[in-house]
Amino acid sequence: MTALGQPVRIIVHHTVTAEDADPLDINRMHKAKFGGIGYHALVYRAAGGDWVVGDGRDDEQLGAHTKGMNTGSLGVAIAGNYQYSPPSMGALGMVIGQCLSWCLTYDIDPANIYPHNAVGRTATVCPGMTPIDTIRAAVAAGIAAVRPTVHV
Ligand SMILES: [Zn+2]
Predict the structure, then answer these.
(1) Which of 35, 39, 80, 100 could bridge 56 with an S-S bond, Cβ 3.0-4.6 Å?
(2) What's the rounded Cα separation, in Å, for the pair 20 and 29?
(3) Domains of the chain
(4) At 52, phi and psi to the nearest 5?
(5) How far is the CA of 28 from the centre of ligand 1 (A)?
(6) Distance of alpha carbon 94 from alpha carbon 44, whole angstroms
(7) CA of 127 to the centre of ligand 1 (A)
(8) Model pTM score
(9) How far is the CA of 151 from the centre of ligand 1 (A)?
């Protein structure tokens, strides 16, 4: 597996599958073309109906989710198609949690969370109406709440 390099940005996707497509389903879909699931994390609707985050590729491995922009990019996808309506609050909460975790772990500025259609070389509507500004703002607020305040 090729190495990701230092993570410097997060790219958000939708899968255009059913909302309950889990990492194994996506792994099967991506097997032939990408050698397995191309995202580092997948937000999907679990059997009980709750939205959960599932593991994709290891964070250290180069993803296969944004043509021309995979190096340094962690990819998270939301199962479903959000071209005509945004993801639910439950799904959004899990995306925000995953992005917050990555930003804290790898010291990524939440300004560097992007929708797929803003980066890369493929013309796409991905991730549809997923509200990236809301995700950025929530992650920034989370970082401010978690990091100890430094008094000088
Ligand atoms: Zn995408």
Answers:
(1) 39
(2) 14
(3) 9-146 (3.40.80.10)
(4) -135, 165
(5) 17
(6) 9
(7) 6
(8) 0.94
(9) 41
